Amino acid sequence: MLLGIVFCSALYTQLSAQSGGTNPQLIMYRYNNYPTQPAPVFQGDLLGTLRWNGLSAIGVGGIITGASIQSYATGPVSNGMLPANMVFRTGAPDQLNRMVITSEGLVGIGTMNPQFNLHTVGNTHTTGDFFGRIHMDENGGNPGPDTYTEEAYLEYKSGAALSAPDVSRGGLLTLAPSANQAGERDHQLFFNDGGIFHRWGDAPANTWAGMWHKLLTGEDIHGTENRLAKFTGPNSLGDSRLFDDGSRVGINNFAPAYDLDVTGTTRITGNAYVSGNVGIGTTTPGVKLDVNGESNFSGRMKIGATNYATGYALSVGGGIMAEEVRVQLQPWPDYVFENDYELMSLSSVEDYIGQHKHLPGVASAKEVAESGLDLGQTQKVQMEKIEEIFLHLIELEKRVQALESENKVLKAENEDLKAASGK
């Protein structure tokens, strides 16, 4: 008995000191003890603990563990098979699991159930340079990129799963600045054989509402020197019909001889200002507008007049001499509305029409046939008659309103009489 104690004490001292030799090993051997003989371990059994202890105070409880490593049987145990992990623990007075290496070689930091070769839960910080490449593995199942907040994420995705314009597979970069700030947007870049595509989503809702837009690259841009570009397709740029070499501008003219040289039909729907002379059909205009050839004006014109006359295409301030037309716009018959104007009664007008077969003051058919038609005088007389008609209509409306008022009074009196008689 004493010999055994001495041997164990010596062995403990040796093991505590070092493990030497050509193949030094420190072995922890776990088995389950049964009355007859040792039994195999079970899944979930602790295979051993390696502790680093230190003296923190003299007395009971003064020796505590600062760090430890444990191993558990993580799978079914059979002859020749012992799947196990390695758990790294720190913390005092209680040891907490910090990192694990599974039997499959997966490393977990902050999680005891890693799903990747390196799986971290929590923030990761690198103070040095990163050398190498980020490798994008295919993510089985193509889960939707709608759960990333405050992070950047790289995936190998199918364009079909993302509703991208090009459905082939490629790399997806998701940048999610925040899920808590209204107005901040998450962004995604998708790289595949079809090009580079971008879209955005509102971070708080984690919804990708923005449509995919292709970013133009050198393959999509082509053109000619001094030619302005235009979209030749949804995602490509090419030559337009505009030319600008910094000195002269051409429209449908790629060798302009003037500051602005237009080949083809030109239309101006707004205002245009020309400080010099304009020549139409001539290259040497002698006046502000010099036309050599026929002219067509579809809108109103004004020559020497202050304003455009309402209802007329041509307004002229002054006389016009023509073989067939004579127009005089002044004076205008506003005198009809003067207080001293003598308005003929409708009965007098009726008598006049019955006798002369035309309105008072209006040229008769015989006079027009013999002397022609004075357009200015005719317009004046027509306006005079129109104004007289309005005066008659105004007077007629007053009479109608008076009759309506009188009828309203009579109707009320009639109702009172019916009420008084009980009928």
Brief sketch in words of this structure:
With 423 residues, the protein is an alpha+beta fold.
Structure description:
- The strands form six sheets. This protein has a six-stranded mixed beta sheet, with no helix packed on it.
- It is 19% helix and 26% strand.
- A hairpin with a 7-residue loop joins strand 3 and strand 4.
- Among the domains are: 95 residues, no CATH class; 65 residues, no CATH class; 65 residues, no CATH class; 65 residues, no CATH class.
- By secondary structure, the protein is α+β, with helices and mostly antiparallel strands.
Record keyword descriptors for this entry.
single chain; 423 residues; alpha+beta; six-stranded mixed β-sheet; five-stranded antiparallel β-sheet; 19% helix; disordered N terminus
Write the layout of secondary structure elements.
Blueprint: H1 2-17, E1 32-33, E2 38-39, E3 46-55, E4 63-72, E5 86-90, E6 96-101, E7 107-109, E8 118-120, E9 151-158, E10 169-176, E11 185-192, E12 195-202, E13 213-215, E14 227-233, E15 236-244, E16 249-251, E17 260-262, E18 278-280, E19 289-291, E20 301-303, E21 314-316, H2 346-356, H3 365-371, H4 375-421
Parallel strand pairs: 7-8, 16-17, 18-19, 20-21
Antiparallel strand pairs: 1-2, 3-4, 4-5, 5-6, 6-7, 9-10, 10-11, 11-12, 12-13, 14-15, 15-16
